[in-house]
Amino acid sequence: MQTDMEYLEETLRIGVAGDFIREGERTCILRYLAEPGVSAPLVLSANMHAARSRTSLIFFILGLANEYWDKQAAAT
């Protein structure tokens, strides 16, 4: 059985391979989840339950990642 993170990584690989998202967006999501102030397990579990598809999961987490990086940029 896959962990939530393994499922997300597979979902992101499929997204890039299918030209649904770009490699930079995949990297943005993974960097966001690796940030010390981000609880990756909590983010993943909450969004996996809300998402009804892999597409929704990508969009939900990409939105969170973009918001996070925008706030980080504004703080500097």
Tally of individual helices: 4
Structural class: mainly alpha
Estimate what percentage of residues fall within beta strands. Answer: under 5%
Radius of gyration based on Cα positions: 12 Å
Mean pLDDT: 95
Number of strands: 0
State the distance separating the first and last CA atoms.
41 Å
The run of helices and strands is HHHH
State the low-pLDDT regions, or none. Answer: none
Major β-sheet annotation: none
Helix content: over 70%
Rough outline: globular
Number of domains: 1
Description:
With 76 residues, the chain is mainly alpha-helical. The chain has one domain (4-75). The protein has helices at residues 4-17, 23-34, 40-50, 54-75. The radius of gyration is 12 Å and the shape is globular. The relative contact order is 0.16.
Mind sketching the topology for me?
Layout: H1 4-17, H2 23-34, H3 40-50, H4 54-75
Helix pairs in contact: 1-4, 2-4, 3-4
Can you summarize this structure?
The protein has 76 residues and is mainly α.
Label this structure with key terms.
76 residues, mainly alpha
